[in-house]
Specification:
The longest helix has 20 residues. β9, α7 and β10 form a beta-alpha-beta unit. The two termini are 48 Å apart. The chain has a four-stranded parallel beta sheet, with helices on both faces. Strands 5-6-7-8 form a four-stranded antiparallel beta sheet. A three-stranded mixed beta sheet has the order 12-11-13, with helices on one face. α1 runs antiparallel to α13. About 2% of the residues have low confidence. It is elongated. Helix content is 44%, strand content 15%. By secondary structure, it is α/β, with parallel strands linked by helices. The relative contact order is 0.12. The structure holds adenosine monophosphate and zinc ion (ZN). Adenosine monophosphate binds next to α1 and β9. The site of adenosine monophosphate has 15 residues, from α1 and β9.
């Protein structure tokens, strides 16, 4: 199988492959650790995790790098407001992020480098850009990238030079911009200002700190080389962040930076943009406070195609709960105890094919439930079930259920069949039959209770 994925650079779907024939080397822009990540951030991180699982699921090993942004205006201001050092402040939020990732069953990246731990690498790259005349030092000791010296600037975002100029005209009055040659030139190094307090590092241009864009160019180069397979982030990063990364990296190495650009459209909340002022920057903690799990949020965030904005609603979490319950019940009834890595997809091959078609998750979930429905039917009539591929496909979706409490107390297939029959009887309002079935289920050692998802079974104690 081959994965085709839309490439922002070429504006068409293209195969994803490892150019070194060994592993797909890819870089994801990581979180800025100044507070909890919101569920919009997690849409992007989950899609990147799905991409990795699909690539590994078709037999290509990966090398996945995701950075931690732990020095910028937001982290500095946040640490000052709490009177903590930058390191204390960011390591707290980094831990919260990592805990959230675990609940959402995100595979940890192979390396998660932090910007603060890579200042020398960033300085080295800036020196190289100055020596190639692609960057200049301002009077106050900041360093800027000279975009007029980089021929392809704007190519990723599809901006032509005129548009860039218009963009620039709007910013001409910005007082902070006076020391730059060109208004779109961006900072590689920011000279120390009193409001930065103790947060300063030495450099050949005086004390200061790196700009945001240079960290990703320096760290991707260190861990993946000058040229690698794929780079990813939310659509808001296309311009200027990724455009600037291309200019820095290609300006520095003279090689093609990245072949495939993968961008995820934004999450919206009940029809609105996510924003502080609307108070809808929900976090995983909020979702758990409403009685839902990381797995259920993961399901919701996977349910729409990544190139379309996804509208989040609370109802979608309830739908996710029942969808996941159905999967868990079927898996347990046929003795699949955990999602495991496997390349055999059996009757689930159409699910994998949908995922390989530009990560069409909506179609893939539809295909998954078609097979789940077939299996439910087979269990009901007591037919033998071919479950080849179920564990593998659940691993590709990243649905973890082995250690969920429900999975431990799941009833055997025979009891499940009776429970389904009772559910049907209740839907038919056949209360006599429903009661008979409840007694039969009790005879087999199980108590049945009605629930939103249909029913729940508990062993008699
Ligand atoms: P940040 O921590 O702000 O640097 O963002 C981390 C990641 O989340 C980046 O890839 C952003 O592009 C992405 N992102 C930010 N807001 C949203 C959103 N509403 N929906 C999806 N992704 C987002
Ligand atoms: Zn980045």
């Amino acid at each position: 199988m081959e994965l085709k994925l839309y490439n922002t650079w070429s504006r068409k779907s293209e195969p994803v492959y490892a150019s070194d024939h060994e592993q797909l080397r890819f870089y994801c822009c990581g979180p800025t650790v100044y507070g909890p990540a919101h569920i919009g951030n997690f849409r992007t991180f989950i899609m990147q995790d799905l991409l990795r699982r699909v690539v590994e699921g078709i037999g290509i090993p990966t090398r996945h790098i995701r950075n931690i942004t732990d020095v910028d205006d937001k982290t500095i201001r946040g640490s000052q407001a709490e009177e903590r050092t930058l390191g204390e402040f960011t390591s707290h939020w980094r831990q919260v992020f990592e805990r959230d990732c675990e609940s959402l069953n995100l595979l940890p990246p192979h390396v998660a480098p932090s910007a603060v731990e890579h200042i020398p690498e960033q300085i080295e790259m800036i020196k190289g850009l100055i020596s190639r005349n692609l960057a200049y030092i301002s009077d106050e000791g900041s360093v800027y990238f000279r975009i007029s010296a980089f021929e392809n600037y704007g190519r990723l975002a599809g901006l032509n030079p005129d548009e860039l100029k218009t963009n620039a005209d709007q910013r001409l009055n910005d007082a902070d911009e006076y020391e730059k040659e060109g208004v779109n030139d961006f900072a590689l190094w920011k000279a120390w200002k009193p409001e930065d307090g103790e947060n300063q590092w030495d450099s050949p241009w005086g004390p200061g700190r790196p700009g945001w864009h240079i960290e990703c160019s320096a760290m991707s180069c260190k861990y993946l080389g000058h040229s690698f397979d794929l780079h990813s982030g939310g659509v808001d990063l296309i311009f200027p962040h990724h455009e600037n990364e291309i200019a820095q990296s290609e300006g520095y190495s003279g090689e093609k930076f990245v072949r495939h650009w993968f961008h995820v459209a934004h999450l919206r909340i009940e029809g609105d943009k996510m924003s502080k002022s609307l108070g809808n920057l929900y976090t995983l903690k909020d979702i758990e406070g409403w009685g839902f799990t990381g797995q259920e949020l993961r399901y919701v965030l996977l349910s729409g195609h990544y190139r379309q904005p996804l509208n989040f609603t609370r109802d979608s979490l309830s739908a996710a709960k029942s969808g996941l319950n159905r999967i868990t019940k079927v898996a347990s009834a046929i003795g699949v105890k955990a999602a495991t890595h496997d390349y055999k997809y059996g009757r689930f091959a159409p699910v994998m094919e949908a995922l390989c078609d530009d990560l069409n998750t909506a179609k893939a979930l539809g295909a998954l439930f078609t097979v789940v429905g077939e299996i439910e039917q087979e269990l009901k009539v007591g037919q033998a079930v071919d479950a080849t591929g179920l564990a593998g496909i659940l691993d590709v979706f990243g649905f973890k259920f082995s250690d969920e409490p429900e999975a431990d107390i799941l009833a055997p297939a025979g009891v499940l069949v009776l429970a389904e029959e009772r559910l049907q009887a209740r839907m038919d309002k056949n209360w006599v039959r429903s009661d008979e079935l409840r007694d039969e289920i009790a005879d087999q050692g199980w108590i049945i209770k009605d629930s939103k998802a249909g029913f729940e079974l508990e062993p008699v104690k």
